[in-house]
Amino acid sequence: MAKQTFRTEKDSIGQIQIPSNAYYGAFTTRALNNFQISDLKVPRIFRKCLGLVKLAAAETNLSLGELDNRSGKAIIQAAKEFSEGKFDTDFRLDVIQAGAGTPYNMNANEIISNRANVILKGKIGANKPVHPNNHTNKGQSSNDVIPSTTKIATLLSIPKLEEETKKLAKSLTKKSVKYKSLKKAGRTHLQDAVPISYGQIFDSHSKAIERSLKNVIKASEDLYELSLGGTAVGTGITANPKFKTTTIKNLSNLTGLKLKSCPNLTEGATNFAPFADFSNALTSLASNLYRLAMDLKILGSGPHTGLSEIKLPAVQPGSSIMPGKVNPSIPEAVEMAFYQISGNNETIRLASSNGQLELNTNCPIIMYNLLQSLEILTNLSETFRTRCIDGLTVNKKRVKELYDGSLCKATELVPRLGYDKVAEMVKKGKL
Q: Which of 215, 205, 213 is nearest to 164 (CA)?
């Protein structure tokens, strides 16, 4: 194995040794040394979108004359390569890091700048002719880049969630049609209540999921407003007055999203409520899946000592010690996923509600938890549908047996006999 070699770079703090072949620089090296706290790393979608933000900014600065032609084109090429994932191994900072995501922003700036210099026949680490702060980060700040990147990454992740959630709701609708005439014993407080059909049960779950999905889409509307161009505190200091409008237009073209500028860029730097609102909507959707999963566990309990009205697909053996046992494995996974998403939501709520004076510095942890919740919920919807809902069946014989032996029909007699008389008949076992 070849011996590791290093280059020496100097920043405002002093000199530091960096692996010779690394495209990142001094800032990232210090961050790597400072923040070895967890193994949490950003998802690919965030890295891709961060590259797109840098690409759009470079296109803007080139068109506005803020960058010379050679440097501008080199940064654009390097940003494209970064967005495509060619430097992912050099972008590996801990999520728990310095506030506002400055390490992420500078990690991207350093990689793109060094790559641009190589394109221009320069040397890695020389910071010329392209400088990470002066050129790649021109017109930008971590304070507007990282929240904007998080919003774009979130918006690009929504269509897959929407697709899978609609498929899940459709699968439940099919079950409601199949079992629309099958009456069952309705239960409230886990006690016999009144008759209801399995068609109505499945349809109610389908409609609940559809309603929550609509709320997710509605909550995403505020995420289209980006704070780019506001730089440090939303005043736009160091940015060309046309940077904001042009960059957002470029990003809209690159992503296919109808992005727009925050009406008040200062508010955009401090108010992260849109992240919290969207996370709340995701958690509400997850709670609908959780509620359905819990009902399926109860209705499928048994097979001989429980309700056993529902038969869930057997996806794996249920025990390492009890032969032949089959557990509700998929509903159990839904349950755990809901707890994780709920925990993420609480982290996002706390992080969004804090921040001091002119900035909320908590975007990295918000970004990680929000994108993780989206990924979990998307994959969960597909798994829940394909490995549980599609294949479940209703045990008609058992449903009829429990229905016929229940007190559900008693309520139907109240209009003719009165509440008190029917209650007395139930008490005496005459129904």
A: 213
Radius of gyration of the chain (CA): 28
Active-site residue (options: 20, 38, 319, 353): 319
Which SS3 state, helix, strand or coil, does residue 186 take? Answer: strand
Choice among 38, 142, 176, 189 that is catalytic: 189
Q: Which of 45, 103, 108, 41 is nearest to 78 (CA)?
A: 108
Residue with tokens 């400088």: 131
The three-state secondary structure class of 270 is helix
Between 108-122, 165-179, 227-241, 312-326, the lowest mean confidence (pLDDT) is in 312-326
Which two three-digit tokens encode residue 408? 């559900």
CATH 1.10.275.10 domain position(s) in the chain: 6-138
Domain with CATH 1.20.200.10 in the chain: 144-394
State in words which class domain 144-394 has: mainly alpha
Catalytic residue list contains 319: yes
Relative to beta strand 225-226, strand 260-261 is parallel
CATH topology of domain 6-138: Fumarase C; Chain B, domain 1 (1.10.275)
E strands present in 198-319 = 225-226, 260-261, 310-311
- Residue 205 annotated to the active site: no
pLDDT at 130 > cutoff 90 = yes
Question: What does pTM read for this prediction?
Answer: 0.95
Task: Report pLDDT for 324.
Answer: 84
Residue 113 has pLDDT above 80, yes or no: yes
pLDDT at 270 > cutoff 80:
yes
